[in-house]
């Protein structure tokens, strides 16, 4: 019976992996040609404007230096506008023909996984209408699937945590401060607070370990890596810090997925804790009303 | 008893509003001075580099036009690099002293609400260490609170939907196509599919109405507005399209909050539908195993 229970979960997990891999390919097919075209056009426009500016420098016929500078300043303004547009399109004026393509396959997988986990960093985003239509459809089906996969992972972790806390309880039975803490916890309504504390501790540990690993290959301080992990695991995904190294992106995706399962377990636990507190307050106000 | 049940929910909602308003103020206090300083520095550097470039034009002493162009090109490269940095810091070379500040109070409220709803567009993000520390603490407490508020709103909507579907059932009792559809639904395992269909319809309607309103003041096509609403309601929040008009930002926040409640109801319904399908498949495979 254990295998019977695990099979549909495994099947869903396999579907999730295939779905992400296939979706990434479709994103790439829809978006890569558009980014190539946009960057080529932006690069060509930039070089054209630069040539026009350089030409104008030797064509200006004026009598004084201040007149000359005034004319050059006006011509430069045109070119500055072109540089601003190019930078906005992802083209550097220092190397207009060096492409900065985002929609390679690995980064497309990373993008697809940030859509269905609802992290959505936004460092990459579809710009074509068909890319956006597909993004809506892909998210519509993928988000519930991913939530289920994450919830299944969360159940596994919850079981692990409760097993570990039992072992920990056996180990610390003779430790006075722990006993005092446990007595305090029981006075405030049971061991759920203890579970929340343990889960939060596990998450902090997980984020800290992740942060220590990220600083090995990303150009981040430890706090920046910690901040990135927190913003990711909560699915806020601001995108102000995003992993840059493509070769570690799949490991990164896996790390995020496990972290999300951990976080969703904790958010659920904390939410229940709040709900319980409200319930207690409600009962208290009810009793006060009866007096 | 009805008032007793509503009071803690109302209290939590009031806490949520006060928490967001106060958090926004703290974000503003921590981040606004930093953005002022960064933009002033970037603007000053840009003007300085521009002056150096202009100066160099009249100081170059060469004999041929091609030599002159070569030297100018090298000088221009320095300035292009400065323009690229300035654009990255949010300063336009066309108007280096026109500030583009994000951390006014209204936009800070908008940012705070996108943190605790986990949307996280990322068009604004804290850059100071204290701003990021506060962001972590603010999210840690605020996200579970917001999830609870959204779930409470979701319950209200779920009740509304079921009441409406009852009325709709009475109205369409004599309509043949609806009867056929209902028969089909019942054959496939009850009325939950009908509820999901109704909820999805309600969400599409809500997003379409929202889209129609957004195009009145944002520079978007209807599809862009629809895409923005979908990306927002799913909390993906890519941030490729973000509302620009500050004066409508509070209405926008309220629209998003109601939409999130609607979406969370739907995601939960769809997830249950999947779970039910898996359960059926599991039972089927169990029965097949017994044969
Ligand atoms: K997000
Ligand atoms: K986001």
Radius of gyration of chain A: 28 Å
- Give the topology string of chain A: H per helix, E per strand: HHHHHHHH
Question: Biggest interface in this structure?
Answer: A-B, 68 and 68 residues
Q: How does CATH name the architecture of the largest domain in chain A?
A: Orthogonal Bundle
Q: What hetero molecules are bound to the protein chains? A: potassium ion
Tally of DSSP helical segments of chain A: 8
Q: How many β-strand stretches of chain A?
A: 0
Largest sheet of chain A: none
Share of helical residues of chain A: over 70%
Q: Which fold does the CATH topology of the largest domain in chain A refer to?
A: Helix Hairpins
Distance between the termini of chain A: 54 Å
Structural class of chain A: mainly alpha
Domain count of chain A: the total is 2
The unreliable regions of chain A are 185-189
Could you tell me the mean pLDDT of chain A? 83
- Which range does the strand content of chain A fall in? under 5%
